[in-house]
Amino acid sequence: MFESLSAASADAILGLIAEHKNDPRPEKIDLGVGVYRSAAGDTPILDVVKKAEQLLLDTQVSKAYIGTAGAADFNAAMQALTFGDSSTEERLSTIQTPGGSGSLRVAAGLILRASPGATVWTSEPTWANHIPLLGGAGLALQSYPYYDAENHVIKIDAMLDTLRSAAAGDIVLLHACCHNPSGLDPSVDEWGAISDIIAERDLVPFIDMAYQGFAADLDTDAYAIRHMAQRVPEMIVATSCSKNFGLYRDRVGTLSILSADSKASDIVNSQVNNVVRTIYSVPPDHGAAVVGLILGNDELRGAWLNELTEMRDRLRHMRVLLNDELVAKAPDYNFSHLVRATGMFCFLGVTAAQVARLKKDFGIYMVDSGRINIAGITPDNVSYLAASIAATLQAG
Ligand SMILES: Cc1ncc(COP(=O)(O)O)c(C=O)c1O
Question: Ligand 1 centroid vs 32 CA: distance in angstroms?
């Protein structure tokens, strides 16, 4: 039977990681990866995670299955982190999922059951995995304009126009903060305009929050979700603890569904849990148990906030440093979008040919679109990076 298969296309980022690894040049820089890195170039386990893991090791008494919804204390703590003091609680249900990706996949299953004809609208561009993940699950996808690559701003008018053309009941996938790949998020006024159209046209917001705490702070970064929750009867929210707790491989996230009333919420909750049963049966426990311990203990929570702030501040600092270096080394070009963007990613603003030249001539690796991971920049490599970008731009 397998002779009917041909090889699946290789993941571009994995190929880039391998190329970077095999590059003998000591000055090489990897701006392609999708994880946070410290100034030392590693992706460390947070100290607070180590502490919570020790606690767990000492106190956990069973590895028996956890239910389809995961741990109730984790779900309650994550719901509060996501929605704040919400007046919509009786309409909300939250389950633990295997990362943000697992959450998106369960949401896709729910959408297919509830509204199989609906179109899911995604930003152009969006996180590279949104399309295969949601499309592969069977959802019909279309895109709305989002990033203006020439002027490095959000195409807000074109985005709103396209959303006005969506059919009632269609679903709009939005990034809560630190839009991946552009790093540019709507302003409060723009969120207001987006939610006006969503409410007027009976669209359903589907908000993906993979970087809470990486832009401004936990509450500000959840603004879009909390604002939207006050304006619409139904909403889908996927969260991930991969970045803000550094728990990538432990697969921790949540799926929250806001329903029109508590009766509908009970039905939705039963369907969500049934979708889980048909995919992975029950979520992994370890990472969510760690997050549950951290969020439920004032001392651990405080320690986590400090480490999260450290990661956010480092990213911010690297954005400013790179922009300052480029102002000095490439004064004819404007890189101010580096500091207008937040989180781990943004577009550098170079062509695919320049991406290739940066790799060949300088050992600087990034994906073809020119999206860079700011976490690959350090105080030690930023000057070399800026000089290489300046030389590449000057070469045309
Ligand atoms: C926008 C966005 N959503 C979701 C995810 C999923 O993260 P994970 O499945 O690792 O939790 C990511 C990860 O990079 C992301 O960037």
Answer: 15
